[in-house]
Amino acid sequence: MNKIVSSALALIIWAQPLSAIAASTARVLIKRGEVTKLSPGELKASAVKVGDLLPEDTSILTGERSMVRLKFSNNSTMNLGPKSKVVVSQMPTKKPNMINLLTGAIKAEVDKKENKENKNKMIVKTRSAVMGVRGTKFQAIYNPQNKNTSLITVEGRVAMVKKEAALKQAVESSEGVRESKGQLVSEKTNQIVDSATELDALDKSLEESTEVVEVDAGKFSGVQKAKQAPSVPVKIAPKQYEVIAKSMGSDKKALEVMKTVDAASEIEKLGEAPRPGGFVDFETGIYVPPSEEAALDKETATFTSKEMGDVDKVTGDYVPPKGVKLDAKKGFVVDKKELAKVASNQEREQLQKTVGSLNNQIKVDQTQGVVSKTSRWLPKEHELAFEIVPYSEVQTFSGDGGDSDFYSESAVDTILSWKQKWSEKWSSRIAIGGVDYEVEEKDGKFREVDDEGKGLFSIGAFYNYSNRLTYSAELISKQFYFVYPSDNTQEVFVDPEILDYFSFGAKYHALDWKKIGLYAGANVLLFGENEFYPADSTGSENYDSFGFKLFGEGVYSIKKNMAVNAGVFFQKINHDFGGNTEIDRTTLGSSLNFNYTL
User: Fold this and answer.
1) What does the DSSP 8-state code read for residue 328?
2) 529 and 483 in one domain?
3) Fewest CB within 10 A of the end CB: N or C in the chain?
């Protein structure tokens, strides 16, 4: 009897560590091609075999055209794609698994019925993002060259946040940790925290951070180096979604997942997000949006565009147009192998045009995190514009002798401007110009007056509050002409005055029709007190001014970086000299603007 009891005790003692080991391992289900592992404490990598049990903190590396599928103790599975590397950091029984994706792509399915205590069933981190998988199927991509992290949710929902924001929130939410060089560090030991502590901190940060973006089924979101937060989730191309879903064993169809009742309203709500219906490149992590000419599918609220490329019918990966390939740093480039096969110069030129057009579409130096040589302190974009503003003006002079109306004809402002785009929200503009003015005299003839080289100068800032609404604030110095009658003669005086004033405005993007955008807006003109020296007097007079401007304009996009604006405006300015004397300036005009973006 004693012998049986001793054996039972020994079995219990040995079973406890064995069950702990089993709970902290992942089993290799499928392996194709060259796959190696580096377990904790080992100095040399070894080949992975089907049936292997991989402990926590094991690194796994796949070769070209290779893959491996793992199954965790909580019934979740993960596929590691070709040329990819992960570290399986944590596999606790009652907490999320934590995967560190160093390069490449993973496809994973989590069992949302397991670990009901936690909202996040799996945490995937890269060097630029942290993702909390709420369920159930998703694909994540990380490219170390451009530091792009891309996420596609197939079923369920995945939360995503930029790594800097996740670490900041982790420090605020957890005791005894601080952030240093992109790592969580123990305040007590000044060492990088262990993976178990990191898991708890990141899990909590995903729950409490205000910068988390939730990506629903059928949608893409990405973290790029140049962006402060993950991109607004958008639907991917339905054909790409269905291939990815099928490869993960899902029977979901694009129309089922993406169906909408009001496509136009859904598109408008996306604001500055990329156009939906694009392709995700699995190697670079770049999202390739549809072209501006793409047709809108009203059932799914996605755009369809053939010229942007296609997808592999087996893997779902993006396939660029023939003769073109996608580079992580440069964006679209000509495929040299295909170029060697091209015989005529015309075909070569067409390839170059295709590359230029594609790069304009993805905006590689801004939205996709492709490395740019431009300094972070310099503008992202420059816009040069030439504007002609013809107008007619009526000045109503009110004084003790009654009212007099004076008309201008063929007045025109000629303006050159340089606009600098600093970010998606902010831009600035500097403008200079000349003022040509003609005034009707008593005999009915018009007399041209010269601006004496003192036309117009302005500097201003613009804030894109949304995709529809832009606010502006400008300081303007402009030469105005004051027209008034003499007290003693029939002579008409025309005196130039340089006035400095602020213009505060708002412009609303009202409508889009093909390549034309329609806008409407208003400005308030605020002047300080000024001194006026009438030509028929030896003294000066102080006066206050106030005005407003209403305008509408249409913008026709000739090319991605070239447009023509045409508009009309109504402007009213009152100059109050005190007493009974004032001048009302009523202006009605039009504008023609040609702009080119560098």
Assistant:
1) T
2) yes
3) N
**Amino acid at site 504:** F
Gap between the Cα atoms of 36 and 41, Å rounded: 15
Higher pLDDT, 407 or 365: 407
Cis peptide before 136 (omega within 30 of 0): yes
Q: Which two tokens stand for residue 332?
A: 């679209």
Single-letter amino acid, residue 256:
E
Host domain of residue 508: 381-597
In a domain, 417, yes or no: yes
370-400 pLDDT, tens digit per residue, is 433 444 567 778 899 999 999 998 888 887 7
- Whole-prediction pTM: 0.60
- Position 19 in a domain: no
Give the amino acid at 87. Answer: V
What CATH number does the domain containing 450 carry?
2.40.128.100
317 and 451 fall within a common domain: no
Task: Indicate if 331 and 464 belong to the same structural domain.
Answer: no
pLDDT digits (tens, 9 = 90+) for 90-110: 888 888 999 999 999 999 999
> Which of 535, 525, 409, 403 lies closest to 482, judged by CA?
535
Domain end among 362, 392, 416: 362
Q: Could you give the C-alpha distances from 137 to 153, 245, 283, in angstroms and in order?
A: 6, 8, 19
410's torsion region: left (phi>0), alpha (psi -120 to 50) or beta?
left
Residue 423 CA neighbour count, 13 Å, CB half: 11
Number of domains in the chain: 3
Residue pair 493/484 in contact (Cβ under 8 Å)? The answer is yes
Q: Which two tokens stand for residue 172?
A: 């605020």
If asked whether residues 335 and 409 sit together in one domain, one would say no
Residues 30-50 have pLDDT tens digits of: 999 999 999 988 889 999 999
Give the phi and the psi of residue 10 in degrees, each rounded to 5.
-65, -40
267, 323: one domain: yes
